[in-house]
User: Fold these one by one.
Assistant:
Number 1:
Amino acid sequence: MRHLNLWICSIVICLSGYAQAKTVNGLVVDDKTDEVLIGATILEVGTNNGVITNLDGKFTIALSHENATIEISYVGYSSQTVQAKDGIVIRLKPDALALDEVVVVGYGVMRKSDLTGAVTKVKADELGKVANVDVSQALQGKVAGVNIQMNSGEPGAGTKVRIRGVGTINSSGPLYVVDGFPVGDISHLAPNDIESIEVLKDASATAIYGSRGANGVIMVKTKSGARDQKVSVKFNAYVSVAQVVDQLDMANASEYTLLKREAMNNANTPMSSQWDNIMSLVEESDAVGTNWQDEIFRDAVTQNYNVGISGGGTKNKYDIGLTYASENGIVKNTYLDKFMAHINNEYSFTDNVKLGTNLFYSNYKKTGNNSDYYSGPLVGALRADPISAAWDPYTNDFGEVYFTYGTNPARAVEENKYKDNEENRFLINTYLQVNNLFKVNGLSFRAQFGEKLVFSKTKNYEPEFFVTTDQNRLQSSLYSKRADTKDWSTSEYFSYNHTFGKHTINAMAGMEVQKFESTYNDIKVYDVPEDADLRYISASSNTTQFVAGGLKYHSSLLSYFSRANYNYDNRYLLTATMRADGSSKFVDHWGYFPSFSAGWNIYQENFMQETKSWLSQLKLRAGWGQVGNQNAAGNHDYVALMSNGYTYVFGDQPVDGAIQQKIANKELSWETSEQYNVGIDAGFFDNKLTGTLDLFIRNTNDMILSTPIPMYAGFWKPNTNAGSVKNSGAEISINHTNKIGDFNYNVGFNISYIKNEVTSIGGGDPIEGGAVSRVGNTTLTREGGEIGMFYGYQTDGLFNTEDELASWVNAEGTPIQPNAGLGDVKFIDQDGNGKIDEEDRVDLGSAIPDFTYGINASASYKNFDLNISLQGTQGNEIVNGMYFILYSSDMSEWNVCTDMLNRWTPDNASSNTPRVIASDPNKNGRFSDRYVEDGSYLRIRNVQLGYTLPSSLVNKVAIQGLRLYLSCDNLYTWTNYSGYDPEVAGDNDLGAGVDIATYPIPRTLTVGVNVTF
């Protein structure tokens, strides 16, 4: 009821006080040449109401009221904000530098010219190009030093964001802060909700967030409206069609039969009469059989609708946004339905006292694609033999899979519809801002409270079925989970901003309290009806067989923080921050995180006056700081872990009890990231060409690891602060903006070089990861290497001749690979011990790129606009986890790719593709460099072409602006990777780049409209 009252009050305040409209005419010209400026933008301040100048440089705009102000902007010129008057002539001056742009930083804002840290701003108009409800995807390729990968192409799968590399084997994701409220992610926001995003990359920028800022901070400012503006309504809608980019080439029924017979013949394995009869029929008819990928993939339609309402009265400003998206996945029976809403309202009691409320609500419902290696549809579509049929017309049910172990992929994809996930998320953020506190100019106070409530539920049903004795599920089951999360945060801080002479001081100090709490309960029951109306826990007819569980987690954080900025004559800049965090996760609660940085605006020096004809900006920055990562530790990792369910007999009586499984470590503490940063910002030719260079070193110290202890201790490995990682690199951003007649364009390029090195694992054993079923672990993290290095056997082609096979012996003349035959893989004996064993494994590359880059271009000609975004990586590898199947020598349980038609045979002895032999005596499928492929790619992330209808046409039907556009996401990708998609995130950083038939990212074609009323 309390939340409902707040919503009602916000809406009532929002809809108060509008004024009458008026229409003004004007002219925009160059201040120096008096040349008219065609295509200049005139925007009513605080609204989305805008027009552009015509071929004569003139404009007509209908405004809210008599006292409205307008902002006039044009590429290459300084913007102006003036009082709107009929017949006004605006003279724009060439833009030397937009130094006074306001940038959001931790607990406040700063002028861009005063920044000494590495901060990048992305504006709202750059976020709406991609047809997706995930805001993070809109940032791909736009910010140097920020690597964003889609977890998969599944609807609602989210993204993996890494700022300046992977600094730990534990939690490496950034902190998100929305309107001053720290949150774990921004999935509750629609791209149309957002006004700007700032990415804080170095420690001098993130240290103000102390123990939560080690992996960078992403600041999000949502739209807020404007005072004294009439209501403005904007409607955005699009419809998309998505399709799989490429299917993998798999053997058809006839090809499979050929290879299967050959594999069994080479192994002298007899074939059953049933199999022989089936294969004979296939051979006689030259059958193609089933394309299982056709059975699971589809063309998928997405719809997205957004309404934005903004404006304000004499005392308030507001913004309301509603977004609904229905996204179907390219794998059948996968979808995401999502609704997002926000109401932002700010009420001014006086000119110095403001009270604001930000309300957010989101709801999603989605299916969960089964990604199991044996029963999932994607892996199954590559595993299943093409002879079997997806549907059996005689039984009117899914067909039997004859030669493949596992589930019929068509059945697996059908069962996706039984996997339901739902989440309801509520956020409220309120603040009180008092300026000129105690009548002291520049002294302000802000108090803020935010709360996040998340209620999620999962229901996975598995129906019973029977096809054969080894393809069945004799008992249905239902798994149900309910999880609740409650986080709240309150912060109070004072700020002081004062200028005296050439000196400017901007200082801030305050405190913050945060509380995190989550609970879950789950249960699995059996014998539940398939009827959707009866598919509940209580409908189980089996009251004795069930599995239930539940846990509760909680932690809290008390913090004190301060920051001071000093500016002398806009030339010399100093910034210092300090944060003290007290966390419940550690016995020694307190950690201290300082940072210092300095800047020199060289351009402002007198000796630079002669360069101002071509140099627009030149600033040098340098900083150092320490930031923590408390998310690397669990809520109670410092205590001993107990396990119950054990029984001991005292006397004659059994007694239930518990045993200690893990040793306590009261000295467990923060992972600390120490960073050094040097940067240069430059602008040339009236700022038409700008560039930024940052060099950085990021050392993660006290990384939390499981440290080995003697086996006789009888405990699990305790967590200790034993490891360290070093990331070093460079970031370059270049942007060029210009105007040629009616043609305006902007081209941006960014590139990031990052070197990752594990400098210590505390003397412990190397850490394995990246598990692939039937293959084992594929990565190893050890000192001197990168996190998650691929680690396996190195090969040297195949044994193509008897001489090669006979010469591969040790010093005693014993064959190094005694079970190898012609056409088998030759593995290198790295240690020279005369045999192939685990000691012969070596580093085979990693998923960490040598560099990542992005290219973003936009252009407009009169009413047409074009936007292009490209993004890529170079120097990274991918483990194709499906190699074990696709290039299987034994073909015992699966199909293979068509490359196996070029396998080694006596008549094709020059082939580099292994022979087929049912027993695979040489173990050709063991993990080796044959699994590892070049993962570099360049992707046309998005192309969008738009047309804005002339205002003279749309104004006749009470529309301020109308834009139509066509768009394509994932248009084309240049890559050598043979899997579905080279953008492979992996389950975690220890398994990054390991691809086990990851749900592919689709190509999406979109038609959309933007309407402003």
Note: The longest helix spans residues 253-266.
Number 2:
Amino acid sequence: MLKLMNLILKADGYTHLSTYAIKKINKFLCQGFILDKAILLAKIPDIIGNDVWHNNKNLIKKEISSIYTQVEKKRLVVKITNNLIASYKQLCLDDETAFAVHDYDYILDNSDKQDVYSAVAQCLNIEDERFSEIRNQVEERYQLFFKDKKRAYIKPTSLRDELIEFLNNNFDCDTTKLYNHSLIEKYTYKPLEIINQQGVRVQLLGNPQLHNLKNPVVLRTMYKLRNILNYMLESGQISNDSRLVIETAKEFNDTNMRWAIKRYEDIRENENVQLEKIVNNILKEYNKIATNNDIKIARYAYEQSLLCNGDYNYDVLTKKDSDRKKEIIERYKLWKEQNFKCIYTGRIISLTEVLNGDTVDIEHTLPLSKSMDNSDENKTLCDATFNRFTKKNMLPSQLGDKIRNEIDQNIEPWRKRVKFLYDKIQYWKSRSRKAASKEDKDFAIRNMHLYRMEYEHWENKVSRFTIEKIEPSFVHRQLSDTRTITRYLVEYLRVVFPNISVQNSNVTSAFREIIGIKEKNRENNLHHAQDAAILSLIPPSYMRDRIMQVYYEIKETKKLIKTEPNLNHRLEKLNRKLLKLKRLAHLDTDINNILDVKVNDIIVNNLSTNRVLNITRRKYRKNGKVVSLRNENNNVVRDQNGNIIPYRWHQGRCIRGKLCQETFYGAIKSPIIGKDKKIQKDAQGNIQYEIKYVKRESVNTLSDLKKLIDGNKLADKKLQSYLQKQIANKNIRVDSDNCIIVNNNGLKIRHLRCYTGNGVIPIKEHKDYASKYKYKNLTYCENGTNAYYAIYENNKGKRKCEVLNLYTISKIEMIDKTKDNLFPLYMDKKNDYIRKYVLEPGTRVIMQEDTNDCIRSLDRDDMIKRLYIINNFRDKKDGRVFLKHHTISKTLSNKECLSQYNTNDHIAFIVLSRENLNFWVEGYDFDILPDGEIKIR
């Protein structure tokens, strides 16, 4: 029974509760209480005392049931009333329908009461015995709304607050220890009050740590956010009355989930690349494709990937046609998902129609103006005639029995796929429970997450065709960010900032279009600044929803106007309405400020922390289990939250990063070839040798072989010369197993031993056997990560450098292993080489043209223009440092790197040798404050 209850609790999302807490909750679940009541009751015996509980348990249980019933009624009343208020606020945006705008003595008339009746009927059955009572209460609350000068929404009632009030009135107890029936624990910290630099009293954010909040990524993010907001409060840049708008970039998941998300995105990206290649190739040869064979050609091309093996022209369409190209790719993807037919009519769609776009439309399964759902799951490739004349603005469930039967038949393969994916999820879930090792368990969990994401995609596509009515809650999910991190964040910030709104990334994207800002340029970080400005402009929810609804109605009307010219008048009316709404929301006055933002006007203040050398704490374990602390009676000791206290903690430093690459290398002794291309010898006539490193390169195509030969990478020069001749004589071919065959003698080649680049390090010594050659006794790998780069300088301005990789750092025996302690203060005392800087990836620098260039005299704009971030650096022998401008978001490209800095040009990437490292370094010469201000030391 305990195991079953644990599964129920975890299935409902209560996995943050300890086993100790679950056992207490189980007692009340077994007595027939529902989960919410059981969680509230579980801790009461402890906080009021077992004797008091035993004498009053029947009273408390009865009162809990009564409170729960009353709270459910109150929540329903608040929900219905707030829906009516939202509808009224949208009506007030239109002059034709607005009423009682400033009339605080307004009395509800018959039409208002009819609206109340309809709103209650949507949530309750008319025959429900509570119907009349709920309707009367809603009318009463709705009437109070009109008398309220603020015209504010009603705050919902909390079940926990009602219970706390009952316990405080009847018992002497500490109600803060109650288990929370919500997934989100409430923040109860008392803000610190100070007088800021402007002489204003403000409240500062407290500790974001909660008992239930375990994710380290979430906690780090919240600590960083606290530091920024507290700094801005202290400096007077914001106040507690400031409006905060939240849009989180992503969910913070565990390692396995992050792997699954990355893998899922890689699969989707690979599919998109293949689709783009196919579309480009089809467009290139478009006039040569026979219409009758379109489906066979496309299916064969995609499944066999034959069109993806060659080098194709990616610039078939001009930049002017890039939007059309994206639309064609989207059409092609939907076409393939729908098995090359229209879901509504069952008509086969030819590839020619997909490319032309006149006879097929990308339509929203649930109309966009009603559902606000612009996701891929809500898009369908549809016959244009059916879409414009029959479906129009209706739901699939409203199209009649004949069409609905056709839809059911066409989405049946999707249902089978959903069933298949669901079975896969259950299979991998079962595998994870039976796993014998952590590696097997992680492997199973990752696969389970991967299949779940695919399952959710197809399950959502199917559900869009079966929805009978678009509920307000469905629309709310499309417009609101309801993820756990956002909910924690809102609860945390609301203690100090009462005015908070949360926006979904889809809403931000929609308002980019509404405001008129072009598509994002993701090569630089300007779009983040624009998105932040757009977020600050998004109006309150009632006005936001109305603006989006009118905008989507305009888009739908533009599609229908091709077949119904009489809709021109409606389109003009909608455009006027949208223009008015934008004026009311002040979206037309601030647009120029957003568009005028240039790359050099922003500073990217990345607050990431280098955690290469990190202090870690781990609980003492024995045979994989935590050893708990016990008292003199040998009973397990628990803290105030019921968690087991470990016997002791292990603390120490760990290294985060890649010590070395996964490929092993061999070492060979090779004669030194001089510039005259002759073997070098010493004075005694002995051949001079050097140690070179080799690895086995796979050779699958003729082009791979040519690249290795042209780069002079083969370790066996005789074999290289022989193969070069065979290529010239066209005596080499590739068989069906991707194996190179030399025709003259039938020699098969799958791998070739090739020289590798620099950065190879010895990892360990062979113990099984010993060779007379020392270099043969070591295992070599390529260096993983260069962690730190120290610059030493003497009084003459000459420089030397020292580079440490993670593998070397791991071998250094030092108690206080910090980046400064890893390098000596002096490299060469005789020549006065003193340590000046210790650089690491992510360090920001302000560039100088030469050593005499004075940065102190520059203004802030010039400093921002010269601000670069160190991306990586080479080993000590090479000594080069790679930098990219702080506004650039794309990956560093060696081809685009320039070897010298020039203040006149906006250079994205720079690579500097140790002799040309002319810059000021953050943390030594200057600091960047949390608000982006550059402070020279």
Note: Confidence is low (pLDDT under 50) at residues 1-15, 287-321.
